[in-house]
Amino acid sequence: MKILVTGGAGFIGSNFINYWLEKYSNDKIINLDILTYAGNLDNLKTIESNPNYTFVKGDICDERLVNELVKNIDLIVHFAAESHVDRSVVSCEDFIRTNVNGTRVLLDAAKNNKGIRFHHISTDEVFGSLGFSDPKFNEFTPYNPKSPYSASKAASDHLVRAYFHTHKLPITISNCSNNYGEYQFPEKLIPLFVTNLLEGKKIPLYGDGKNVRDWIYVGDHNRGVDCVIRKGRIGETYCLGGGNELSNSEITSIILNLLGFGEEMIEYVSDRPGHDLRYAIDITKVERDLNWYPEVDFDAGIKHTINWYKNNKEWWQKIKSGEYRNYYRRQYGT
Ligand code: NAD
Ligand code: DAU
After folding, report:
1. Could you give the CA distance from residue 143 to residue 81 in angstroms, rounded to a whole number?
2. Distance (Å) of CA 252 to CA 66, 152, 259, 331
3. Residue 18 class from Cβ within 10 Å (0-12 exposed, 13-18 middle, 19+ buried)?
4. Does residue 206 carry a catalytic annotation?
5. Per-position pLDDT tens, the chain of length 334
6. Catalytic one of 33, 59, 125, 182
7. Ligand nearest to the CA of 248
8. Cβ atoms 18, 90 nearer than 8 A
9. pTM tops 0.90
10. How far is Cα 178 from Cα 198, in angstroms, rounded to an integer?
11. CA of 11 to the centre of ligand 1 (A)
């Protein structure tokens, strides 16, 4: 099979390519990534000389390039996106451009070159925010996105479904909860807190720390995407979640304990505007129809992840000390 992966130099996409080429070593992957601040070819060092892997630096919004690349492709797995909620609060222009128009460009290219299967990677944030005692999100939950990021992802999901209904494009969608693991850019909660502590710096907890997320190890997410690609029904959506609901305060305590620090390292900072209270995924459909469930429990996954950041300091120090450091200074005063 010949696959076009978009955003394969980012956190989940690079883990996906590493996973896929190890499992399906005869498949060929083209990785199309523009290398924004979040794209990092260091994530793909182990496969960069694999003859079945090709990297193309380019924009998913570039119709000419995308049309060229999809020739002879069997499957598009679409990860590329602007992915950080806080950045979408500051400005959502790039989010609309990449997440909405970029998805449209890929859909048109798939539509115009018959026989291409399209798998769209989406998020549980499209469903909005749950109260503490609300039932979890599932495939029937109405869309109610609350941040510019999630609104852009919701728009892309609707477009993908519209191309299925209107043009009979063979699509599937997966909506996943919060991922953690190796190669996650240190702007997201877990890698930011772990790397700050490894540098002896404080960790910025938003608001009262009571917001809840449903954490999934990135390898479990990618196994889920694999199951949906191989066994999912065309036109359908699948919700993937980790079954690990934790408040930000709980996660913070776990990380502090594992790294041997006390609560004095927490800096309570102003809350994210419009901060969604709780996300949680009901995985009944994927368990029943695809026999998928998360295998990595949070205890083991977070220990593994912290060890990875401890053992791969060059990876994140290069990011934090490079041109990106001005962002950290502005954002966190460090
Ligand atoms: P990321 O920010 O780490 O990586 C995004 C990648 O997309 C980067 O390599 C970037 O260079 C690339 N990219 C951005 N704009 C592009 C463009 N115009 N053309 C080509 N490449 C471009 O993101 P991530 O956390 O790996 O998320 C990947 C996907 O998974 C996104 O679609 C996101 O919405 C979704 N998702 C993420 C999570 C999570 O917890 N991180 C959970 C559920 C769903
Ligand atoms: O739910 C899936 C989503 O998870 C993905 O679609 C997004 O791409 C991904 O970024 C993630 O979104 P969140 O906003 O939930 O992740 P983030 O790591 O930014 O924040 C997790 C929680 O931690 C959230 O409640 C905000 C809080 N937080 C975050 C940061 C960066 C803090 O308290 N302090 C921080 O410095």
Report:
1. 19
2. 42, 29, 11, 19
3. buried
4. no
5. 999 999 999 999 999 999 999 999 999 999 999 999 999 999 999 999 999 999 999 999 999 999 999 999 999 999 999 999 999 999 999 999 999 999 999 999 999 999 999 999 999 999 999 999 999 999 999 999 999 999 999 999 999 999 999 999 999 999 999 999 999 999 999 999 999 999 999 999 999 999 999 999 999 999 999 999 999 999 999 999 999 999 999 999 999 999 999 999 999 999 999 999 999 999 999 999 999 999 999 999 999 999 999 999 999 999 999 755 555 445 544 4
6. 125
7. 2
8. no
9. yes
10. 22
11. 7
- Note if 125 is an active site residue: yes
Please name the amino acid found at residue 130: L
Please report, for the chain, the start and end positions of each structural domain, with discontinuous segments joined by +. 2-332
CB 97 within 8 A of CB 57: no
Residue whose tokens read 């907890």: 205
Q: How far is the CA of 38 from the centre of ligand 1 (A)?
A: 8
Nearest CA to ligand 1 atom 19: 59
Strands 178-180 and 266-269: unpaired
- Mark out the alpha helices in 180-231 (DSSP H runs): 189-198, 218-231
Q: What is the largest CA-CA distance in the chain?
A: 59
Fold of 2-332: Rossmann fold (3.40.50)
CB burial readout 256-289, b (16+ within 10 A) else e:
bebeeeeeebbeeeeeeeeebebbbbbbebbeee
Residue given tokens 């999912």 in the structure block:
232
User: Is residue 103 in contact with ligand 1, taking CB distance under 6 Å?
Assistant: no
Place of tokens 């927490």: 266
Structure-token match 């505007």, residue found = 273
List beta partners, residue 178: 215
